[in-house]
Design goal:
Structural class: alpha/beta
Strand order of the largest sheet: 4-12-11-10-7-5-6
Strand content: 5-15%
Distance between the termini: 31 Å
Radius of gyration: 27 Å
Largest sheet: 7 strands, mixed
Oligomer: single chain
């Protein structure tokens, strides 16, 4: 299998050339209805007159006061009704939702692709989409064993085909026997297929060196995003100064800010230190929390490790010294315990660690290693997905969350909440089962699986290094080392004339920059303002 190409060296050189050209060339029912809704008891003899008077009273109210859409006269003289749902009458929290990785710049990229397909001349031959971690769309090849088992599950007649290895057939039978009617087209339990949750629990125990995992604490999800939003729904309550606040890192993955906006929660920003390689500082967490307590009720702390979009494997700084990941996680756990915060650990990039000497540590393992004082009290939800790491299977929407120390009554409410959406996609559940239960030594598919997995991760590591090196050769761009995940978040210096032109056009300067890059070079980036950044700095 060939490795992922994501942003190839040629793409990075195009990015560099576009930056140079940009720098040198510059920027080119109301109270009136109460008596009607609560009428007195009427005798049969009074019904007619009462009904008549009620009708007259109702008709005397304007359509607007009765909650009905206005009628308006069309040009042809025919009366037409206005829309019931308008921008003014829709849910106001939805209008506050922004999701930069699929925002206006991406919509323009789609338009450009259509224009190219229609033969319109552009300064580029293709649109390179670097706006989202969609590995297969950029050429990464799927893992053969995963697709073989999914094919067998989708069309069980293939179980009679001798070209499929026996371990793939065995996994497919295991999954199908766990499905209603032995079919992947049936609903599963709302929490997920029991056998898959057991396999996830076994995987977590192996990963964390024997720390116990109860399958009843596992919820299979529609990608990690579904689990994250579900947990936020449970956490958000209160009004005014008692409204739930949720601490998120800046820069952040826009899912968090979008979900908080939709739920009407308060977003509490804590800033990662770019000058110290996007490090997390406990002092910054404390500053952010103390300020937020003046206007909301902080209840949760979200951590993304490895980081999106910074590519950071969590480090923490005390003065000038740098302490490795595990110590960072311990201090975050102590902070959450001290301040009574619910911890949410986004760990979907746990296999994407590239930097020398770096290692992934799960929040759960560190929590339990710290002893009962913490492992019996700190509330934690952690998340994983089939979309990233070496799999890149974004479209199957597979994932899970594990909950630790959740109140039993709240857990019952969580189970009720997930039952409303019936179940996560069963093919995604099947794929999650394969991720946590891959080929083992001695099985027919093992050697090829290890070869493909190693090749994919090695290619990603090579491109992480290449991205940092090449971007740092470009005047006006600086990029921290990409230690993990699948992204870099370089800082850009934008000329004052370009900043002024952007503001004159009502745009953020980095959005202006990224739109120029798209229109002139065909490279689709996400402006740093979509992820959050310190005032006066610009990124993509």
């Amino acid at each position: 299998m060939s490795a992922s190409r994501m942003l190839s060296p040629r793409h990075v050189r195009l990015l560099s050339r576009g930056r140079d050209e940009f720098l040198t060339a510059g920027p080119g029912a109301g109270p009136g209805l109460r008596s009607l809704t609560s009428p007195p008891l009427l005798s049969s003899s009074s019904c007619s007159s009462s009904s008549s008077s009620s009708s007259r009273a109702l008709s005397s109210l304007s359509a607007t006061r009765r909650g009905l859409p206005r009628e308006k006269m069309a040009e042809n003289g025919v009366t037409s009704r206005a829309k019931v749902l308008t921008i003014d009458t829709m849910n106001p929290t939805v209008k506050k939702v922004e999701y930069a990785v699929r925002g206006p710049i991406v919509q323009r990229a789609v338009e450009l692709e259509r224009e190219l397909s229609e033969g319109m001349k552009k300064p580029f031959a293709e649109v390179i989409k670097a706006n989202i971690g969609d590995a297969h769309a950029m050429g990464q090849q799927p893992i053969t064993f995963f697709r073989q088992v999914l094919a067998l599950c989708s069309y069980p007649e293939l179980l009679n085909d001798s070209t499929f290895p026996e371990d793939a057939k065995s996994r497919a039978r295991h999954i199908l026997q766990s499905c209603g009617g032995n079919s992947m087209g049936s609903y599963s339990a709302s929490q997920g297929i029991d056998a898959v949750r057991q396999d996830v629990a076994n995987y977590i125990e192996r990963r964390d060196g024997g720390v116990p995992c109860d399958p009843d604490d596992i919820y299979l999800t529609t990608g990690a995003s579904d689990g994250i939003v579900t947990m936020l729904k449970l956490l958000v309550c209160g009004e005014g100064a008692s409204r739930t606040g949720v601490m998120i890192s800046i820069p952040q993955y826009p899912l968090y800010s979008a979900a908080l906006a939709e739920l009407g929660a308060v977003q509490i920003n804590y800033y990662l230190n770019e000058e110290k390689c996007w490090s997390l500082d406990i002092g910054e967490l404390q500053r952010s929390l103390d300020e937020a307590r003046q206007y909301c009720n902080p209840r949760a702390l979200c951590i993304i490790n490895p980081g999106n979009p910074t590519g950071k494997v969590s480090f923490i700084h005390f003065g000038q010294s740098q302490v490795q990941t595990r110590q960072c996680i311990e201090d975050v756990i102590r902070f959450a315990a001290q301040e009574r915060l619910f911890l949410m650990a986004d760990e979907v990039y746990q296999d994407n660690v590239y930097a020398e000497g770096c290692q992934f540590h799960s929040f759960k393992k560190v929590l339990f290693d710290m002893g009962p004082e913490y492992s019996n009290t700190v509330e934690l939800a952690s998340f994983h997905s089939t979309s990233k790491c070496y799999m890149g299977e974004c479209g199957f929407r597979g994932g899970y969350m594990e909950i630790i120390n959740m109140d039993d009554e709240v857990k019952a409410q969580l189970t009720k909440l997930v039952s409303v959406r019936l179940c996560p996609p069963v093919p995604g559940q099947a794929l999650m089962d394969l991720v946590v239960n891959p080929p083992q030594p001695g099985e027919p598919s093992y050697n090829n699986f290890i070869k493909e997995r190693t090749s994919t991760l090695a290619a990603l590591a090579e491109k992480a290094k290449l991205t940092e090196q090449v971007l740092n050769t470009v005047q006006g761009i600086s990029c921290n080392p990409v230690q993990g995940a699948m992204y870099s978040f370089p800082r850009i210096t934008i000329p004052e004339k370009a900043v002024k032109e952007a503001k004159d056009n009502g745009q953020q300067p980095d959005m202006f920059y990224c739109m120029k890059m798209l229109e002139e070079m065909g490279i689709c980036l996400v402006p740093g303002s979509g992820f959050g950044q310190k005032d006066g700095t610009y990124h993509f």
